[in-house]
Amino acid sequence: SSASWEKEGQRIQLHMETGYPMDGALKLTIETEQPVSWKLHVRMPEWAENTVEIKINNEVVESSIIDGGWIELDHRWCQGDVVAIVFPMQLRFVSVDAKNPDLRALCYGPLVLAGEEMAILKGDCAAPENWIRCVDRENLMFETDSNHDMGYDFLKRRFRPFYRFGEMEWYYMY
Question: Is 117 exposed, middle or buried (0-12, 13-18, 19+ CB in 10 A)?
Answer without folding.
Answer: exposed
